[in-house]
Design goal:
Length: 158
């Protein structure tokens, strides 16, 4: 798929993956789902659920490294700034021909447009945090996060 098609998918995911409510307990549950999925896939990742201005879940699996925590921080900052998934921001930037690292008004050490962070968005559209994974190729980081959010939303609907 090209970036235009992928961008449409990211926008649709952001419309579907919204929470009626989200608490600290929901953040912990989401983190545990994310951790379980990562372990099942033997993914060497670090992961974070950030909400209410703080980390509510943080874990690192075997094979991850301290650098993954830096990537988590930069990806999360991008989501909190844009209210879009970091992979969504990357697709927009690729389509415009100017990746984030080429944008002079962005502090490069604080932001990146690589996939793996997704907004924690309420049904009214407000973003209250981000869920982030680092350690896999960016599309795989993104997909792991989306799978975890969808699993939590399915569980909440039951």
């Amino acid at each position: 798929m090209n970036d235009s098609q992928l961008l449409a998918d990211y926008i649709q995911q952001e419309e579907i993956c919204r929470f009626a409510k989200f608490s600290h307990d929901d953040g912990w549950a989401l983190g545990m789902i994310l951790r379980r999925l990562a372990i099942e896939n033997k993914a060497p990742v670090a992961m974070e659920v950030f909400a209410f201005g703080q980390q509510v879940f943080l874990a690192a699996l075997p094979g991850s490294c301290p650098e993954n925590l830096e990537w988590i921080w930069r990806k999360r900052n991008t989501v909190l700034r844009s209210w879009k998934a970091s992979l969504h921001v990357g697709a927009v930037n690729r389509l415009s021909g100017q990746r984030m690292e080429q944008q002079g008004f962005i502090q490069q050490s604080d932001y990146c447009d690589h996939g793996g962070s997704f907004p924690v968005r309420l049904v009214d559209g407000v973003v209250i945090g981000a869920v982030t994974v680092s350690g896999l190729p960016e599309q795989d980081d993104h997909a792991l996060v989306v799978r975890a959010i969808q699993a939590l939303l399915r569980d909440a609907a039951c």
